[in-house]
């Protein structure tokens, strides 16, 4: 088996962190905590309800890049939770089932599938006494996140590899009508849909999307799907992505100084303060932050009207510093978004993955133009370099795993 994984070796992690801050070229050497194993033995299925999947291709996510750069810090809430020595990378994948255990009921050999329950959960660890959130399909909120699997697991792999093994609960079947490229985009599509369904604007509300990467562009589409009568601005510095957002339904681009531009767009007050510290009254009804970090938090909170809502999608696995004053002063609402789960929409209950597939299949959610770069699996470092360079045309990088 070939697979790419993050090795929690503390000296190597420290070296990777140092390289990420100083000499980026060292990230592309053997010192990186992200390793590529090409000769691991093919793992056996550890339980009767597990399957083996041969990968076709896999998208590269910002989370994968954060492992490559080792940007997580020991002061974030995830740090105290015990985990495995190896974290297998790649979750925006499409593959074909090549082997099923005798207790598998959801899949058969030849089915195309994608990873759904990627983060630690009851289902992907085969924990028999599932928590309340996993029982209802909201696996990303699993209360057994820190508990070990009762199974003795081999190297299981994930999307960045030629194959992987997984319990059937962890996977989602791909609709026959979807192409492999569309299937690769199901997971990030689900993130964007889930974000807007966590908080859907009201008719006539003014909404801003910060950042037009894969998720932000998806949020623009989701806003127009679920509330076509809201007015959408985007804040994005890259002109190609601005144009892409307009094609996907954005109404306006927020140009220039964010405070002055927001005040003008929303009929707010004059902007008070100087070059480094500004504030005004009025602002957007809802902001979807697809960037994350201290600057994004401070800026988004100040660009909201009183009792507005900040939907937090972009994140960094580290504690940050930001000005929380507007939260209490303007009585703002913060809504967190953790990937995807189970949705309640139009009187039915449906997983975000199946909802994403329906919308893509029916042509309501566009995927053309999202995949901009492709590399063979063996050239994964080139893929990470492109993401770090962030050229204007970049949206989604995909690794060919065949």
Q: How would you describe the shape?
A: globular
The appropriate CATH architecture of the largest domain is Alpha-Beta Complex
What is CATH's topology name of the largest domain?
Quinone Oxidoreductase, Chain A, domain 1
Level-1 CATH class name of the largest domain: Alpha Beta
In angstroms, what is the radius of gyration? 21 Å
Major beta-sheet overview: 7 strands, mixed
Count up the helices. Answer: 12
Tell me how many strands there are. Answer: 20
| Structural domain tally | 2
Provide the low-confidence segments as ranges: none
Average residue pLDDT: 96
CATH superfamily of the largest domain: Medium-chain alcohol dehydrogenases, catalytic domain
| SSE class | alpha/beta
Q: How much helix is in the residues? A: 25-40%
Give the N-terminus to C-terminus distance in angstroms: 12 Å
Strand content: 15-25%
